[in-house]
Amino acid sequence: MSKNKGKSNYIPKNKKKSSIEGTNKVGILDITxxxxxxxxxxxxxxxxxxxxxxLKNAINGDKVKVSITRVxxxxxxxxxxxxxxxxSQEEFTGILEVSESFGFLIPDKNNxxxxxxxPLKALKGGKTGDKAIAHIKDWxxxxxxxxxxxxxxxxxxxxxxxxxxxxxxxxxxxxRFSEAALKESEAIPDILPEAxxxxxxxxxxxxxxxxxxxxxxxxxxxxxxxxxxxxxxxxGVHIADVSHYVTPGTELDKEAYQRATSVYLPDRVLPMxxxxxxxxxxxxxPNEDKFTFSAxxxxxxxxxxxxxxxxxxxxxxxxxxxxxEAQEIIETGNGxxxxxxLTLDKIAKNLRAERFKKGAINFSxxxxxxxxxxxxxxxxxxxxxSKDANKLIEEFMLLANxxxxxxxxxxxxNKTEIPFPYRIHDLPNEEKLANFAQFAARFGYKxxxxxxxxxxxxxxxxxxxxxxxxxxxxxxxxGIRTMSKAVYSTxxxxxxxxxxxxxxxxxxxxxxxxxxxxxxxVQQVIDNEVKLDKQMEMKCQHCSDRExxxxxxxxxxxKYKQVEFMSKHVGETFEALISGxxxxxxxxxxxxxxxxxxxxxxxxxEIDEFTFVESEYALVGFSxxxxxxxxxxxxxxxxxxxxxxxxxxxxxxxxxxxxxxxxAAKPKDKKDKAAPKEQKATKQTQAKKKKEK
Length: 693
Hints:
CATH 2.40.50.700, CATH 2.40.50.140, single chain
């Protein structure tokens, strides 16, 4: 990720307007609720405004070509869409309107400026008022409505089920595989051909285990273990050989590339590959022979790698452990294959210690998991813990990923570097880092910002010192936000967060397309038949974009489930930490459930008039000097939980009397404060009574 990226030829407003008028640029379209469009062009300070009539039939998130028609007096370029390069979405939810001759789907989203024409034969039994999903068959030319077909009727489904589908569609993920892709998948035989087995390293007689979450269905990694005669341990990291089954040019490959990732929502997984591939053919299930792509290491107990081998293998998993089962062996020393598990754990801990010694950052933000009933309604929220069993798998996957990246990185074809999808992570943003250091200092933590090494060391010390403190979650979250985002790129700048010079994704090809690309290139290197892919950087960008969309969908779904959970707790009070502050109010996250809601500044005005002080990340009272700062512990009242807006509104439960610190001029808004204070007291009394019940 070059630091020169993002520079452009955008002409500032003090130059002649005509210098960019008439030029065409490519960017991503963002359509507001009002229907106005803005094309975001990389490196441009101002987005290009596109009026509703000039959008053609482009939709939010589309990659478009825009022609600049003028530059307004304030320097804002304006234009019109002349080409839609890539669609962000092809399926939409909405309500049907059906006449005698045809139907229309009226999309739910109000930033889509067209209805979808549905011929009678494509209605699939849908009638007026039905909620449905339509797939666009023909986008038209912008002068007529796009034409589509109904692929699913949603009327009668629970609202939370429909919401999850809408979240996936809005992120541009198709809910089902094409018939052609499914047909290809089902045609692949389950039996491993003897001719193919003969070409591979046979590891079936070596002890091999998998360790995965209790609810996992696809096991894409396994670890083999044995002690060699030379006193070294042979540890194999075996990864499902998806590239054996999914070959370039097939419908399966096209759909896997388009999705680029599996998406994990609280109540479902939208897989990158059909279930026959992900859960059957490629899942490294116990007591079954499977094709794998492996990195096999000879190493000491201290984690020093003496030699390694990379290539295609066939394995036989002897035992499937859940993380909980493996953790019990680590803690008690007893259980099946305990010697192997305990030795692997010891080596993993040494690898981890060495990694941090060399500059890796020990970020381990808290993740939540929803406990759902049979209807997908959350009945509880638990914080996931990353224990030694999780870290054991993590360390060996990291070892395989960096070894494979370094292996390919050393190879050249005619003195040309091989285009390869490295996983890269740039240095932190200096301005964000300085602000974070200033904020952390308020809690007594000091960050050294002299160079990348001292930044990493002081970050690790902070994370160690903050462990178990009330401010832990806030500082972890803010710390992560200072970091650059990891992406895929052919430009290998290393991975700052992990402290690796070379890194790639090799270990999860069932759920990530870059891993499939890595497997293919590694095999080409092994066969000495490398094909230089000039489109690799474009593919890397696509995979990074899809990963970002999947993460956004996952966050949105988590938020929906939080709102759904909190809707059962309206009127109750909880302890919370302030997680964000703005001029309009502040956000707080409940300590027990990690659910975030907002407290409006209008509610706080019943206590005092508050002003946002950005340098302190705080709202400060005019008369009382009372402060609401990120990390402060408060009590909140759950006032509203709006599923449609996916928003939780909290009220502040004031447990301390207001104390005047100075004589203050009367507020500009000369309201009688008595009634609101009385109202707040009543609200708190009601909350207290509800809690006592």
